[in-house]
Amino acid sequence: MDRGLYVAMTGAKQIMLAQAANNHNIANSDTVGFLANTIDFTSEPVYGPGYPSRVNAVAGNGGVDFAGGVLQDTGRSMDIAVNGPGLIAVQAPDGSEAYTRAGDLRVTANGEVTTAAGQPVLSDAGPIAIPPSTQVTIGTDGTISVVPLGLSAAAQSQVDRIKLVNPPTADLVKGADGLLHLKGGGKAKADETVTVASGVLESSNVNAAQSLVNMIELQRLYELQVKSMNSTDTNEQSAERLMSVP
Fold first, then answer.
1. What is the pLDDT of residues 2-30, one digit of tens each?
2. All structural domains of the chain with their residue ranges
3. 62-74: buried (b, 16+ CB within 10 Å) or exposed (e) per residue?
4. Which residues lie below 8 Å from residue 150, measured CB to CB, with a gap of 6+?
5. Residue 159: is its pLDDT beyond 90?
6. Cβ contacts of 189 within 8 Å, gap of 6 or more
7. Which of 5, 84, 190, 201 has the smallest set of CB atoms within 10 Å of its CB?
């Protein structure tokens, strides 16, 4: 059987994977702090006996687009956005340290500071918790200050500091939980140069228009692979008829 059929089939499958990643980006175009996934295609030889006349196109995880999104004013004191490069440390569902650009923070009923997705925000000492307060503010260095419940504004005090990091992007990988992790595991060191702005949020960095164009292009490429499979099958049937002629 002509390897061209397998090459076209593999190409169609890889395009479907790329389409899934692209659609995931589109679905998160309105998600606060979302960093788009990128897909790279590489050429891989078709192994086995015979002359190497076929090459597979394989879609691989190209990584993460670390370009910043647009900052949008909210006026909410618990909303923060990282200025330039940097990340906010949070606790992943498995208990490990992870990182995000999503700064839409909340305070739970028991005083724990979390992201809107429910991940606990970390300081160097662990998850941050604050006492019952009438006012919560976050400084440019990530310092959290509160006015305890029942006291005046003059009683404002610092309770903790958000861990802000800036590891090399090459050392980061996006996990299945949607958060960034160090490739080798472990924890990144706090970076004193990373600052945040309060009262603003960073939008997703997904270019929705370009992603829609990519979706159309991938669909056309998929149709091309299907046509190639049909052509290969037709050629093979013609060859079989010729070979069967006495």
1. 566 777 878 888 888 889 999 999 999 99
2. 3-66+206-244, 71-202
3. ebbbeebbeeeeb
4. 134
5. yes
6. 165, 167
7. 84
Return the structure tokens found at 93: 């569902």
- Amino acid at site 9: M
The pTM assigned to this predicted structure is 0.83
Q: Nearest to residue 9, comparing CAs of 233, 235, 220, 213?
A: 233
Sequence letter at residue 230: N
Residue 185: the pLDDT is 87
Q: Hey, what are 61's tokens?
A: 């995880």
Neighbouring residues of 202: CB distance < 8 A, sequence distance ≥ 6: 32, 33, 68, 69, 70, 71, 72, 81, 82, 101, 102, 103
The alpha carbon dihedral of 127, 133, 134, 138 has a sign of negative
CA angle (142 as vertex; 149, 145 as ends), nearest 5: 15
Report how far residue 162's alpha carbon sits from residue 155's, in angstroms, rounded to the nearest whole number.
21
Strands (E), the chain: 37-45, 55-64, 71-73, 80-83, 87-91, 97-100, 105-107, 113-115, 122-123, 126-127, 133-138, 143-148, 157-161, 164-165, 172-174, 180-182, 195-198, 200-202
Amino acid at 14: Q
Structure tokens at 149: 């419940």
Residue with tokens 């060191």, as numbered in its chain: 189
Tokens for 186?
Answer: 């472990």
For residues 112 and 92, what is the distance between their CA atoms, to the nearest angstrom? 15
